[in-house]
Each structure stands twice: as C-alpha cells, then as structure tokens.
Amino acid sequence: MTRPLTIVSLILSIAGIAVAGYLTYVHYNLGALVCGIGDCETVQASKYSEVFGIPIAILGLVAYIALAGLIVARATMPDYADFASLAILFILITGTLYYIYLTYLELKVIYAVCQWCVISFIITVLLLTVELVRFRRSMNEVDTGFDATEG
Amino acid sequence: MSQRPPKKKARKKTQVNKPGTQQPAASQETQADAASSQETPKATRASRSAEQRNARRAEAERKAKQKKQMQILGGVVAVAVVIAILLILVNRPSNSGLDIDYEGLAFAPPPITLTDGTPAATPQSDETTTDPYIGARLGNPDAPVTMVIYADFQCPYCRLFASETQPKIIEDFVRPGKVRLEFREMPILGGSDLTSKSNESSMSAQAALCAAEQGKYLDYHDKLYANQKGENQGNFSEKRLKQFASELGLDTDAFATCLDSGRYIPALQQSKAEGQAEGVTATPMFLIENGTESSGAIQMTDQGYDLLKKQLDAAIETAK
User: Fold this and answer.
1) What pLDDT sits at residue B2?
2) Beta carbons of B233 and A30 less than 8 Å apart
3) Among the partner residues B1, B18, B152, nearest to A35 by beta-carbon distance
4) Residue A148 DSSP one-character state
5) Buried-state track B282-316, b at ≥16 Cβ within 10 A, e below 16
6) Which of A94, A100, A109, A149 to mutate: most B Cβ within 10 Å?
7) How far, in Å, CA of A22 to CA of B312, rounded?
8) Confidence of residue B65 (pLDDT cuts 50, 70, 90)
9) C-alpha to C-alpha distances, B253 to B104, B211, B258, B259, nearest whole angstrom
10) Is the predicted pLDDT of residue A4 greater than 50, yes or no?
C-alpha cells in the first residue's frame, strides 16, 4: 500500500516547494527595510537567514525540489527505489534537525516567529513521518512478498 | 542497487511457499521464471526438501536484508546529524558587539539643554544649544554633507543598518571627511508614551543619551544593538540598561541618576516630533542634507547600501 503514501509525499513536497519559493521571494524582495509600518520581516532580515551567504529559504527550496524529484524517480524507476528512499530519508532527517535549531533561534534569539517558516517545518515533519511509515512497511513486506503491491 | 538480486530471490521463494497467493499482472513474468526453475514435477520429495532449504535460506536473507536496511538507515541518520550540526555551527548566535571601528573620528555629543537650562553634555565651543534637536554626531564637522539617522534601538532593521550598512558609510564617506553622521532618536516601537518605564524604545534612547553625558554615546549605541532581542519584553529594562552602563565602564551612579531622572524625555519627544514633521514614519529613516537641500526622509531598501551610496554621492556633488 505504498501508492497512496507516494501521492501524500508528492503533495507535501510540492507544498514545500511553494512555501520555500515564497520565502525565497520574500528574502529578495523585502522592499523598504523599516520598522513601524506593518511587519518588520524580522526573521527574513536577520543575519541568521543566510548560511555561507546562501539564503536558508533557497536551501529549503532546493531540498523540496530534490525530494519531489526523488519521490517521482522512486515511483517510476523501481531499480533505484531503495536508493531514492534512503536519499529522501537523509534529506528529511537533516532538514528536521536543522529546523529544530532554526525554530529555537526564532523563539529564543530573534524573538520573532515567521509563520511560513513554521509551516515549512510542519511539512518537513509530516513528510518524514510518511517516509518512516513507508520505510517500516517496506521492511515488513520483505516477509510477505516484498513488492507485491509496489508499482 | 546491490540489494536488488536478493530481493528478487526472496520474492520467488514466497511465491513457491504460498501457491494460493494472488499475484498481480506485473509479477507474472517472475512467476514464469519460477516455474521454469522447477521443470521436473515428478521429483516432488526432492524439490520439497529443496524448497525447505530455500525457504530457510530466504528467511536468513530476509533477516540479513532487514539488518542491512537498519544499518543503512543508521548511517543515514548519522550523516544527517553531522550535516545538521555543521549547518548549526556556521550560523550560531554570538554575543559579540558590533565591532565598528570609530578610531580617529571626530565625535560631538548631543548639545541638549535640559529643562533646568543646563547643557546636558558640553557643547563644542563653536555651537550653542539650539532649538531643533541635534543628536550625537560622528565625523568631520566641516563635512559637506550630513546624514541624519532616525532610529529606534528596538528596531531590527536599525540594528541591521548599524551593523551592516553604517560601517560601510563610515569607511567610504565619514573617514574621508565627506559625510558627518548625526544620530537622532525615533522611539516609536515602545508605544506613544515616552514617559513610561516599560517603553523600552524610550528607555534605551534615554540610556544612550545618559551615556553621551559621559562621552560614550556610540559605545552605548553599539551595545544596545548588539544586545537587541525582541521588543518590549524586558530586554532593555531599567536593570539591564544599568548593567550595560557598568559593562561599558561608565560611572554607574551618575548613569543611574540620569536614567532615573527621565531628564531626556523632553528631548526624545522633540526629536520624535521633528522627525515626524520631516516625514519619518518608520525606522530607520534618513535625511541627507548638504546645506542647500535635503533629501527628505528616505528609507533603507533591499538595495541596501548601493542606493544610499548613490544618494550620498549626489549630495556631495551638488554641495560643491
């Protein structure tokens, strides 16, 4: 029963692309950098919004695009399915750990929470959950005819 | 990829063990493979014991594969942890100051007259305390252009300007003597009541002016930005502001007396009102003045330093 999970994963990764794309746009289009009118966009303007000079929003965008690509590749090229699954898990675990740190920064250092960043965090955690369920199932399916239902 | 052949083997064995299992069309091919490997149906006993052997082997392979998968997952987790730690290490918070080099630059404290008529800080000999608010000034007094900075110490973009853009302006314009910076106070983020002790925009600006009495406006200015954390949540409480003064080596008694007195509240009200009259509606905003004309209130944009540089160059050009 991996096909519904594939669809869920794909939808989540596409949602991730949309959110990270929006955050990338915001990072480069802050407009007037002032406080007092509307939101300060504190998080996107903070020095923590870049790493090695690369906006974290772009790191997120690249990661979600890679995830979507790997999910499609896994569904269409069974020979690479195991590798794709591990690569997906790798990206998601790294991303989740980094997001925990970034959320800590928002709450305890920048003192501002960026709601789209939180939404992206939730998407990543959901994706990780789906992929772990899938990984667990694929291990159990070794006992009952591994890929009887895998396309 | 290397895990693929054992998986196929496992599938064949399970099909043999469970002949009743319905197979989807996709695996008919492999079923045919399996059939072709048992072309001698007469030797049932031999093939049954072979099946049992194969089943045991398949079981062992399954266990091995599961173990291998767990090991690979463990490896993936380990590498993910290492990479996440690296990402965190290159981007962790530091409590260092702004580290701006003011060495050798002329500085004039704000020539503010207190309500009792005494000057708060010693004015320079060539100036008298005047009607419009004049803030602390950095750089050549004869510079053709003055860049007035209206800022709120609680504003993250003011911090961004102070830590990123202002050092560039100092190197390119202030140090060569072409531009003088003037720091005016625009306490807006703490609310409209500048007399409230819980208005941290007002309190931090008052504290900076108290530090100016001891010649430490810029040190205090940098200290505030370096310690900026959120708005109106106790980060610039009276206690912390006094602690900053102590850390900067100020006369803490004089500083406390100054801060407790609220003597700079009228000056802040004046600075804020004049800023608003100039069109300063947010922070940070700037006025670029060259004696003949003023830019009017301008903002920092995502073009960052480049736009301000152009405007400063233009003002210097027309001042000649």
Assistant:
1) 40
2) no
3) B152
4) T
5) bbbbbbbbbeeeebebbbbeeebbeebbebbeebb
6) A94
7) 33
8) confident
9) 29, 12, 9, 10
10) yes
Whether pLDDT at B312 is above 60? yes
> Which of A13, A6, A24 lies closest to A117 in space, CA to CA?
A24
> Could you give the CA distance from residue B215 to residue A149 in angstroms, rounded to a whole number?
77
pLDDT given for residue A46 in this prediction:
66
Q: pLDDT per residue over B112-122, tens digit each?
A: 766 565 666 55
State the CB neighbour count (10 A cutoff) for residue B254.
Answer: 13
Q: What angle do CA A38, A44, A48 make, to 5 degrees?
A: 140
CA distance B320 to B268: 33
CB B1 within 8 A of CB B23: no
B152: left (phi over 0), alpha (psi -120 to 50) or beta: beta
Phi, psi of B288, deg, nearest 5: -110, 115
Chain B residue nearest residue A95, CA to CA: B84
Q: Which helix (H) or strand (E) holds A100?
A: helix A81-104
CB-CB neighbors (< 8 A) of A138 in chain B: 69
Q: Which residues contact B155 (CB under 8 A, 6 or more apart)?
A: A34, A35, A36, A40, B189, B283, B284
ipTM of the predicted structure?
A: 0.70
Smallest Cβ distance to A36: which of B3, B83, B189? B189
pLDDT by residue (tens digit) across B141-183?
999 999 999 999 998 889 888 988 899 999 999 999 999 999 9
Is A111 in contact with B231 (Cβ distance < 8 A)? yes
Q: In degrees rounded to 5, what are phi and psi of residue B149?
A: -110, 120
CB B103 within 8 A of CB B219: no
Distance between first and last Cα of chain B: 74
Residue from A127, A108, A110 nearest A56 by CA: A110
Give the nearest partner residue to B300 out of A33, A36, A151, using CB atoms: A33
